[in-house]
Specification:
Layout: E1 3-15, E2 30-33, H1 39-45, H2 55-61, H3 64-80, E3 84-91, E4 94-103, E5 108-117, H4 126-140, E6 145-153, H5 161-168, E7 172-183
Parallel strand pairs: 5-6
Antiparallel strand pairs: 1-6, 1-7, 2-3, 3-4, 4-5
Helix pairs in contact: 1-3
The structure holds coenzyme A.
Coenzyme A binds near residues 117, 125 and 164.
Length: about 180
C-alpha cells in the first residue's frame, strides 16, 4: 500500500549578537557537556527521546533499531569532534535530555538534531535549558549566526512543541516548506 507523508521543513536562525533570554527554569536537572563515556547511556534512550513526534521517521527508516543506529552515528561523531558538542540534562544519575551543537567556519554554527527530552520530563523547562546551553557555548566560541532545521510530519497547520520552543527562545523562521513524500 502506498500513502503520502506530508512533511514540513522549517528553518530557524539565531543572531547571537542579540541577547539570549535568561533561563527561567527552577528544576533540579543539571546541564553539562557529554563525554565519550556517555555514549552507552545515550544509546539506550536515543529513540525514546524523539517519541511520539518522530514515530513517522522511525517507521520511515525501518524501525527502532535502525533509528537508534542512525541517531548513534550522529551522537558518536558529535562526541569525537572538537568542533561539535552534545549537552545532556541529568536528574540524579539519569540522562533525561540532550542537544547537539556544531561550529562551522566564519562565525556560523548549527544546532544539530534539535533538542530532545524524555517524554516523562517535558514541559518543565529542560528543553529550554539545553538549547540555551548550546547557544551559549556557540556564542562563547565566536559563532554569530546559528541555524536549525526542523522537520515535522502531517502538521501543516499546527506547530509541534519544538517549534514553540525555538520561537520562545528567539529563533526567527527563515524558511518554511511543505512537501509530500510517497511512502511504500
Ligand atoms: C521539543 C522538546 C525538546 C521541548 O522540551 P521541554 O523540556 O518540554 O521544553 P520546555 O519545558 O523548556 O518548554 C519551552 C517552551 O516550549 C513550548 N512548549 C513546550 N512543550 C509544548 C507543548 N506541548 N505545546 C506547546 N508549547 C510547548 C512552550 O512555549 C514553552 O515555553 P513556556 O514554558 O514559557 O510555555 C520536547 O517536546 C521533545 O523532546 N520533543 C520530541 C523531540 C523533538 O521533536 N525535538 C526536536 C527535534 S528537531
Amino acid at each position: 500500500m502506498k500513502n503520502r507523508l506530508k512533511l514540513r521543513n522549517i528553518g530557524f536562525l539565531w543572531d547571537l549578537e542579540e541577547p539570549l533570554p535568561k533561563s527561567r527554569s527552577k528544576n533540579k536537572a543539571s546541564i553539562r557537556a557529554a563525554t565519550r563515556k556517555d555514549g552507552e547511556r545515550l544509546r539506550k534512550i536515543a529513540v525514546e527521546l524523539y517519541l511520539p513526534e518522530w514515530s513517522w521517521w522511525v517507521r520511515k527508516i525501518g524501525g527502532k533499531e535502525r533509528a537508534r543506529a542512525d541517531l548513534m552515528s550522529y551522537v558518536g561523531e558529535f562526541l569525537r569532534d572538537r568542533k561539535k558538542r552534545i549537552f545532556v540534562a541529568e536528574e540524579g544519575e539519569k540522562i533525561i535530555g540532550f542537544c547537539g551543537a556544531a561550529k562551522h567556519d566564519r562565525g556560523t554554527g548549527t544546532v544539530g538534531y534539535g533538542v530532545a527530552v524524555l517524554p516523562g520530563f517535558r514541559k518543565r523547562g529542560i528543553g529550554s535549558m539545553l538549547l540555551l546551553a548550546a547557544l551559549d557555548w556557540l556564542k562563547k566560541s565566536g559563532v554569530r549566526f546559528v541555524t536549525l532545521e526542523e522537520e515535522t510530519f502531517g502538521f501543516a497547520n499546527k506547530d509541534i512543541p519544538a517549534v514553540f520552543l525555538y520561537k520562545s527562545l528567539g529563533g526567527k523562521i527563515i524558511s518554511d516548506q511543505t512537501f509530500s513524500l510517497l511512502q511504500v
